[in-house]
Specification:
Elements lengths: L1 H28 L18 H23 L2 H13 L6 H10 L3 H14 L5 H9 L6 H14 L5 H10 L5 H11 L2 H8 L9 H13 L6 H9 L5 H14 L2 H10 L5 H11 L6 H10 L5 H13 L6 H10 L3 H14 L2 H12 L5 H14 L4 H12 L5 H11 L8 H9 L3 H14 L5 H8 L6 H10 L4
Helix pairs in contact: 1-2, 3-5, 4-5, 5-7, 6-7, 7-9, 8-9, 9-11, 11-13, 12-13, 12-14, 13-15, 15-17, 16-17, 17-19, 18-19, 19-21, 20-21, 21-23, 22-23, 23-25, 24-25, 25-27, 26-27
């Protein structure tokens, strides 16, 4: 529905602009009595109901524009936060106007966050100026600026970030370091590696340095990182990040050390070893350790093993995944296995997931998780999931499962969903019908448009009447 919201707002903004232009035109014409007023501006306007819905949407957009122009700081930041959450970037010009006129740092920060999310470079000049001379700005604003710089990869800011790090300015160090992880070079990596030897460097910052070196794939620093990873007197989290950084570099020397590191007593370090090994595609030794990690006593290590098996597409571990999905004591591991099994798309794994979908004794959560995994990758089980949804539509005791399955259908375009969408739309349960509208909005089944129009004209449909009207007025 986020796409629909974006399109609706864009359409409403266009309508608003047209209406303003018409109003200006009519005002200008009123000064000349010899020219008759236009008898119609828009022909074939449709029903009164359609005009009403369009007017409601136009009014809503105007209200948002008024908030950006005149609202309280808290109202403005809340509205921009909503735009970010909905990935709605149609009002970038208006947000830029807010940025240029506001005197409040919190509003500025929210505007910067908006343009970072939009990956819009229009604040580049401002961001570089702040990065070069941040000392008169609040640390929160500078942090937002460096996040923006990192997201849009403004490499021109690297020297400024290095200077801040070299000065060890406590207010801006972390923000500059984080940005350098996205925009830095091999030279920057060597510069950062020197900080690891400073005795006054805090553990938290050494951990941050490790993460950034991993981001930079700084193979020039691999020797130092390996010695840190193998140092049993070193802080565990510093070792963990060193191991993960080496994995991102796919360092060959580190590969030989992972078997010993996997024997560490700390499960967090073992989990980091598996995460590192996930980067060594096609390496038999790495695969062996990853598959062994499915048996680890700690669930975090098993989770990393499942993720690594999926990342490396290790169908050879399929039977082990199915066993773990059936027997793991932790639900979070079981459901991660469901996802990996569906992704790997092997026959016995698909059969296992379908068996869960068909077995009501497994419970609503297991059935919905298995269905979600199968639908996400679309390799098997679609008809069985539709059959399950039809069962829930006939039994109000299964509403929660019905809702969960419907929300999964609404994520994907699939002509096979037409019949089940129709049943959702025909339901007398408001939530069920609303989910049916979501499925329709995603798929736009022509054969169901008349049914949606019927809901749009039904005064008893409550919120679904408004929802149906809005869906019908969004361009396909």
């Amino acid at each position: 529905m986020i796409l629909h919201t974006r399109l609706r707002r864009a359409a409403c903004l266009s309508v608003l602009t047209v209406c303003i232009s018409i109003q200006q035109y009519m005002t200008a014409q009123s000064s000349s009595p010899t020219v008759p007023e236009p008898t119609a501006v828009i022909t074939n306007a449709g029903s009164t109901q359609q005009q009403s819905t369009q007017q409601e949407d136009t009014d809503a957009v105007q209200q948002e524009m008024d908030i950006l122009a005149y609202g309280l700081d808290s109202e403005i930041t809340e509205l921009i936060s909503k735009y970010i959450a909905e990935k709605d970037f149609h009002f970038a010009d208006e947000v830029q106007q807010v940025f240029e006129t506001t005197k409040t740092n919190t509003v500025k920060q929210k505007c910067i966050e908006y343009f970072a999310a939009a990956e819009d470079p229009r604040l580049k000049e401002y961001a570089l100026a702040v990065a070069q001379d941040p000392y008169d700005e609040s640390k929160e604003l500078v942090a937002s600026v460096f996040q923006y710089i990192g997201k849009l990869a403004f490499t021109e800011a690297a020297p400024y970030a290095r200077k801040i790090i070299d000065d060890e300015n406590k207010d801006y160090f972390d923000a500059a370091l984080s940005a350098l992880g996205s925009i830095g070079s091999a030279e920057d990596a060597l510069f950062l590696a020197d900080f690891l030897d400073r005795p006054d460097m805090s553990t938290a910052r050494r951990q941050a340095l490790m993460r950034v070196l991993g981001q930079l794939h700084a193979v020039e620093t691999s020797g130092k990182l390996l010695s840190i990873a193998q140092d049993e007197n070193e802080n565990t989290f510093v070792r963990m990040y060193a191991v993960e950084a080496l994995g991102e570099m796919q360092d060959a020397d580190a590969l030989a050390a992972y078997a010993d590191l996997y024997n560490a007593s700390d499960p967090n370090l073992r989990a980091s070893v598996i995460k590192a090994l996930s980067h060594y595609d096609g390496n038999a030794e790495a695969q062996s350790i990853i598959e062994q990690a499915l048996r680890d006593n700690h669930y975090k290590v098993r989770l990393e093993a499942v993720a690594a098996i999926k990342q490396q597409n290790l169908v050879s571990a399929g039977d082990a995944l199915v066993y773990r999905a059936k027997n793991d004591p932790e639900s979070v591991v079981k459901y991660a296995c469901y996802d990996a099994i569906a992704y790997l798309n092997f026959s016995s794994g698909n059969d296992f997931l379908i068996s869960i979908v068909k077995d009501s004794r497994k419970g609503d959560t297991a059935q919905s998780k298995a269905a979600a995994a199968l639908l996400q990758y679309g390799n098997a089980g679609t008809q069985e999931i539709i059959a399950l949804a039809n069962d829930t539509l006939a039994d109000d005791k299964k509403k929660n499962l019905r809702y969960a399955l419907g929300k999964e259908f609404a994520k994907y375009s699939n002509p096979a969903f037409s019949a089940v969408c129709q049943e959702y739309l025909k339901s007398t349960d408001v939530s069920t019908q609303g989910i049916g509208l979501d499925i329709y909005a995603r798929n736009r089944f022509p054969e169901l448009t008349a049914l949606v129009e019927e809901i749009a004209g039904n005064d008893k449909a409550g919120p679904n009447k408004v929802k149906a009207n809005r869906i019908l007025h969004i361009p396909s």
